[in-house]
Design brief:
149 residues, alpha/beta, 5 helices
């Protein structure tokens, strides 16, 4: 198993958790971004810089993904592609997307986008906080523990 990170929009604190997890677990973790990314030096941390453009990083992740790999992303359409391809997707707030919930999440995302496009002010996600960090770290640890049995 490898971990892939949709790194452009990934919060810095989540990247730091992932750096430490890669070192601790010795799982190759690849950050894919369309801009320079500062990381720690490690044989378990890789960087792929792609050209800028709509969903270029997402396409690269899906192209490289193998069955059983984990992708860290808040992008629900990317998560849907990952799950469809046999991978796992975990968002930075600790929610694991599965075949059981991804269609519902994608439908809700599409509904919210349609409402925004039609002028409805529906607000956005809550501010990322300490609880979100802890939930993500716990979900990541649980996933790795189950996968590495």
């Amino acid at each position: 198993m490898r971990i892939w990170v949709d790194a452009d929009a990934c919060p810095v604190v989540i990247k730091e958790i992932l750096f430490r997890a890669a070192e601790r677990t010795k799982i190759t973790t690849t950050f894919v971004a369309n801009q320079f990314l500062r990381t720690t030096v490690s044989p378990y941390i890789k960087i792929i810089t792609v050209l800028g453009g709509f969903d270029v990083a997402d396409a690269r992740i899906v192209q490289e993904l193998e069955v059983g790999d984990l992708v860290i992303t808040a992008d629900i359409p990317l998560a849907a592609l990952v799950v469809e391809k046999g991978g796992h997707a975990l968002n930075p707030r600790g929610e694991l997307y599965t075949t059981a919930n991804i269609k519902e999440r994608l439908a809700m995302r599409n509904l919210m986008e349609e409402l925004r496009d039609n002028g409805f002010d529906i607000g956005g996600p809550t501010t990322f906080n300490q609880g979100d960090r802890q939930t993500f770290a716990a979900a990541l640890d649980t996933f790795i523990a189950k996968t590495n049995k």
